[in-house]
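B., you asked whether I could sanity-check this one before it goes into the benchmark set. Here's the sequence:
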Amino acid sequence: MEITTTSEHKTKLIGAKLGFFCRDFFTKNKETGPLILLFFGDLGSGKTTFIKGFVKSLKIKEEQIISPTFIIYQKFQTKYCTLYHFDLYRLNNVKDLLKLGFKDILKEKKSIILIEWADKMDNFNFKNLNVIKINLKHSNGNKRKIVIKGL
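And here's what the prediction gave me:
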């Protein structure tokens, strides 16, 4: 699916729509394992903005979502699932992420894992996991091209 948004508000709206889809996915498929959303895009492409819209569907206030660059990840418990928000911008390699217990997080049946700068995980095997890839590209002004693939 390919979408072009023309404002920050519309980028958040697309994020919220995907968030509702994912929330419903858990409601219908309780034992499917984690749902992983991999975000790709340059600095300023709208990854965190998209995620702020996404979390509204889980009743998380968008003000709670900051790009967790310095703390690597945030964890939120919702009535629907556990949400993890990772920002890999400062990580050197996947080994750094594994030291934080990432493999254990992948074992959680009812979790959504959002990963910004997912290109740093090129060598990671997501085989047999529920993965959605979101690529955001900055265009003219506030325009963003959003490409969503998977699930």
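One thing to flag: The longest strand covers residues 130-138. Otherwise nothing jumped out at me.
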